[in-house]
């Protein structure tokens, strides 16, 4: 069964940290890069970061660069997103997606929609100010 399952979201104060996990089925993990995306209420889904599970190459959007770190554990078919110095504007539902990892996937919605083939159901992140 093909699946992506996120966990680790929750409530955190501004300046705090959270670590999200995305567990992918083997078929996905072997064939696709994994990315993290987020959607705040009333806003479009946007890219956050992505990583190639083959060579570890990763990209970040400017909004999170220096604060978030993406990593993968290939023995567990899991990709992590470690988020530090969280801000109220980081509050959103966070989704992992499997597809192509490229800066355009993170910055252009049409590219994201075309090149991300599978989505998880999301995990909420709430940041209190």
How would you explain this protein's 3D organization?
- By secondary structure, the protein is mainly beta.
- The chain has helices at residues 26-31, 103-107, 109-115; strands spanning 4-7, 10-13, 18-24, 33-39, 46-51, 58-60, 68-73, 78-83, 92-99, 116-119, 123-128.
- A hairpin with a 4-residue loop joins β7 (68-73) and β8.
- The model has no long low-confidence stretch (mean pLDDT 96).
Short summary of the structure?
The protein is mainly beta and 129 residues long.
Tell me, briefly, the overall form: globular
How many angstroms does the end-to-end distance come to? 40 Å
Measured by DSSP, the beta-strand proportion falls in over 45%
Cα radius of gyration in angstroms: 13 Å
Average of the residue pLDDT scores:
96
Major sheet characteristics? 7 strands, mixed
- For this entry, what is the oligomeric state of its chains? single chain
What is the string of SSEs from the N terminus onward? EEEHEEEEEEHHEE
Features:
single chain, seven-stranded mixed beta sheet, 129 residues, mainly beta
């Amino acid at each position: 069964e093909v699946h992506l399952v996120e966990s680790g979201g929750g409530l955190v104060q501004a300046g705090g940290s959270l670590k999200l996990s995305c567990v992918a089925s083997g078929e996905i993990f072997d064939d696709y890069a994994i990315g993290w995306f987020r959607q705040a209420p009333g806003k479009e889904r946007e890219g956050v970061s992505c990583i190639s599970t083959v060579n570890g190459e990763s990209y970040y959007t400017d909004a999170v660069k220096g604060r978030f770190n993406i990593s993968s554990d290939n023995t567990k078919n899991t990709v992590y997103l470690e988020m530090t110095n969280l801000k109220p504007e980081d509050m959103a539902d966070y989704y992992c997606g499997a597809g192509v990892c490229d800066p355009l996937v993170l910055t252009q919605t049409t590219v994201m929609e075309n090149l991300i083939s599978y989505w998880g159901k999301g995990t909420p992140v709430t940041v209190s100010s």
